[in-house]
Amino acid sequence: MKENEMYTTEEIQGQTQPIPGKESQMDPEPIYDNPDYKGAGRLKGKTAIITGGDSGIGRAISVAFAKEGCNVVIVYNAADNDANTTKQVVEEYQSKALLIKGDVGDSNFCNQIVDKTLQEFHTLDIIVNNAAEQHLQKKLEDITDEQIQRTFQTNIFAMFYLTRAALPHLKENSAIINTGSITAFKGNADLLDYSSTKGAISAFTRSLSTNLADRKIRVNQVAPGPIWTPLIVSTLDKNTVGTFGKDTPLKRPGQPVEVAEAYVFLASDASTYITGQTIHINGGTIVNG
C-alpha cells in the first residue's frame, strides 16, 4: 500500500459520540503509528509530559516519543481504556509510561503532575501542552459563561499552570511544545471560544520563547488543521463529520501519525536553533504566521 493510500479516509461516514469521545469506537479508527517508521534514539533518556496523551494527536505523540527512547507521562481526563491502550503501545516499544488522570485546568493537579513525574523518572526534559476541548455553537449568544470558562481553563490556562510548575526543573535544551490550531490563523465561525484560545496559545508560545531564550529553553507550537481524532466525532454534527477535511487542498483529513513527527523534531536536538515558531500541518491550507 502506498503511503497516500494508507492515510486515505474516504470511508468516513457521519458519526457522533458523547464527549470526550473514544478512539476505539471511531470508524475508521485513527492511525496513530506506522510500524515501518523506526526510531533512532533521538529522545533516548529523556522524559516528556504529554497532556491529552491518551488519544488522538496525543496518543500519536506518546507512541512516536516512545519509539525514540523517551519516558512518557500520559496525562488524561476521562478515557481510561484509551489511556491504557496508549500505555501498552508505549511499553511495547520498550519505553516506560506513567498514567496520570485528572483535570489540567486545575493548577493544583498540574503541580501534582510534575511531582509524580519527578518521583517516577527523576528528570523532566519535554513538556507537550496538548490537551484541549471544543464546543460547537452557531451564535455567540449561545455561548454560556460556563462554556467560555471551561474552554479557556482547559486550552490555555492549563498551559500556564503546567509550564509554571515544570520550569524550575527544566534544564538548558529542554523543549516546550504547544498544540495550537489552524483556527488561530483563519478563524472558525462555529468555534469562537476555541479559536480564541488557540490564538492565545500562539501569543503564549511567542512570548514565552522570548522569556526563556536566556535559559536556552525552546518553545514552539504545532498548528494542526483537520485531524481525525475523538475530538471531532464528540463535538461536531454528523454532516460535518462526514465531510471533515474534504475542503483542504489534499481533499482529506489528516491522521494523528502524520502530525506526531513534528513534535519529535521540536523535542530533539535537530531543532536547537528553532524557538518561537509554528509548524503548520493542515493538508496544504496557506495561512499567515
Give the CA-CA distance, first to last residue.
Answer: 35 Å
Low-confidence stretches: none
Main-sheet strand order equals 3-2-1-4-5-6-7
Classification by helices and strands: alpha/beta
What's the gyration radius in Å? 18 Å
CATH fold-level name of one domain? Rossmann fold
Give the number of DSSP strands.
Answer: 7
Beta-strand share of residues: 5-15%
State mean pLDDT (0 to 100 scale).
Answer: 92
Q: Would you identify the CATH architecture of one domain?
A: 3-Layer(aba) Sandwich
Question: What is the CATH superfamily label of one domain?
Answer: NAD(P)-binding Rossmann-like Domain
SSE topology string: HEHEHEHEHEHHEHHHE
Name of the CATH class of one domain: Alpha Beta
Helix coverage percent of residues? 25-40%
Family: Belongs to the short-chain dehydrogenases/reductases (SDR) family.
GO molecular function: glucose 1-dehydrogenase [NAD(P)+] activity
InterPro entries: NAD(P)-bd_dom_sf, Sc_DH/Rdtase_CS, SDR_fam
Pfam families: adh_short_C2 (PF13561)
Describe this structure as you would to a colleague.
The chain has about 290 residues and is α/β, with parallel strands linked by helices. It has a seven-stranded parallel sheet with strand order 3-2-1-4-5-6-7, sandwiched between helices. The chain has a domain of about 200 residues: Rossmann fold (3-Layer(aba) Sandwich). The protein is globular, with a radius of gyration of 18 Å. The model has no long low-confidence stretch (mean pLDDT about 90). It has ten helices and seven strands.
